[in-house]
């Protein structure tokens, strides 16, 4: 599993950062199944929030960021240390919400909980709705999507994209040997913040820069919402197209796609 400055792997974080009694551990395992999706967290944002908590609390503070729809904020004091786990929706929250969060977990401020409740309601769409057991597979035979994602995130997005990425399932084509008519090389689900890449790209003859281009394109969908106009949504508004051209191998990737699309359709 790749590690990097901007990556927090939810489950080991629980085990390593917070020592929990055996029985509680069993409960937590229900919440974090082994197939827990990898959660990308902007580490700078996490540290900034932890600093604010530390200023307000007279003791050590350990902050974990989760993607858990069932416990959006949990906190407790153990041996003088404040352990806080919050959903990633608080990392980019407005400062009035962050202040409320700090008051709520350090002083149990009841007034703060109304502000927090509103923020949670407003961000309900960010609560992951993936099937808990659907594993995310980012390491392919030839290309490692997580590795590509992290590199692109650093280079083009300052590490701020918190989405998850997986190879799509190989579609069952049951005896159908005719070439495909179309192939969707990548997709992005805003509800799940999930990027899927078509498994046909996990082949030796598919260059890394082309897979990177697909990943970059889907990351742009995470960053730039579709624009509404004339009753339909334009998923690739002008801003999107401008940003897309900033990809280092943009022309080369398009050229490769033109030359190889037939082979991709057959694979
Ligand atoms: Zn697109």
Description:
- By secondary structure, this protein is of the alpha/beta class.
- 42% of the residues lie in helices and 15% in strands.
- The protein has helices spanning 10-17, 22-31, 43-56, 95-107, 110-122, 145-157, 208-223, 238-245, 250-266; strands at residues 7-8, 39-40, 61-66, 73-78, 81-87, 164-167, 186-189, 194-197, 227-229, 232-234.
- The protein starts with 6 loop residues before the first strand and ends with a helix.
- Bound molecules: zinc ion.
- Zinc ion binds at residues 217, 221, 235-236.
SSE inventory with pairings:
Layout: E1 7-8, H1 10-17, H2 22-31, E2 39-40, H3 43-56, E3 61-66, E4 73-78, E5 81-87, H4 95-107, H5 110-122, H6 145-157, E6 164-167, E7 186-189, E8 194-197, H7 208-223, E9 227-229, E10 232-234, H8 238-245, H9 250-266
Parallel strand pairs: 3-5, 6-8
Antiparallel strand pairs: 1-2, 4-5, 7-8, 9-10
Helix pairs in contact: 3-4, 4-5, 6-7
This protein binds zinc ion.
The site of zinc ion (ZN) has 4 residues, from α7.
**Biggest sheet record:** 3 strands, mixed
Strand content: 15-25%
**Oligomer designation:** single chain
Q: Tell me the overall shape.
A: elongated
Overall structural class, as computed from helix and strand content, comes to: alpha/beta
Radius of gyration: 21 Å
Give the low-confidence spans.
1-38
Count of individual beta strands = 10
Task: State the separation between the terminal residues, measured CA to CA.
Answer: 28 Å
Order of SSEs:
EHHEHEEEHHHEEEHEEHH
Bound molecules: zinc ion
* Mean pLDDT value: 79
Tally of DSSP helical segments = 9
Q: Which strands sit side by side, in order, in the main sheet?
A: 3-5-4
């Amino acid at each position: 599993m790749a590690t990097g400055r901007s990556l927090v792997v939810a489950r080991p974080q629980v085990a390593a950062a917070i020592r929990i009694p055996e029985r509680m551990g069993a409960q937590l395992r229900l919440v974090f199944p082994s197939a827990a999706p990898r959660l990308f967290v902007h580490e700078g944002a996490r540290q900034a929030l932890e600093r604010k908590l530390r200023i307000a609390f007279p003791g050590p503070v350990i902050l974990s960021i989760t993607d858990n729809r069932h416990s959006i904020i949990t906190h407790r004091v153990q041996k003088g240390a404040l352990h806080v786990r919050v959903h990633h929706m608080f990392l980019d929250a407005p400062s009035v919400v962050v202040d409320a969060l700090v008051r709520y977990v350090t002083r149990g401020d009841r007034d703060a909980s109304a502000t927090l409740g509103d923020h949670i309601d407003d961000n309900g769409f960010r609560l992951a709705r993936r099937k808990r057991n659907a594993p995310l597979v980012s390491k392919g035979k030839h290309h490692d999507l997580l590795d590509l994602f992290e590199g692109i995130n650093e280079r083009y997005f300052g590490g701020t994209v918190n989405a998850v990425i997986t190879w799509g399932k190989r579609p069952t084509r049951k005896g159908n040997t005719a070439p495909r008519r179309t192939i969707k090389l990548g997709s992005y689900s805003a509800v799940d913040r999930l990027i899927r890449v078509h498994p046909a790209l996990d082949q030796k003859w598919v260059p890394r820069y082309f897979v990177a281009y697909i990943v970059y394109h889907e990351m742009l969908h995470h960053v730039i919402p579709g624009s509404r106009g004339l009753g339909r949504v334009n998923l690739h508004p002008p801003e999107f197209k401008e940003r897309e051209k900033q990809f280092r191998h943009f022309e080369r990737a398009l050229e490769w796609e033109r030359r190889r699309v037939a082979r991709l359709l057959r694979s």
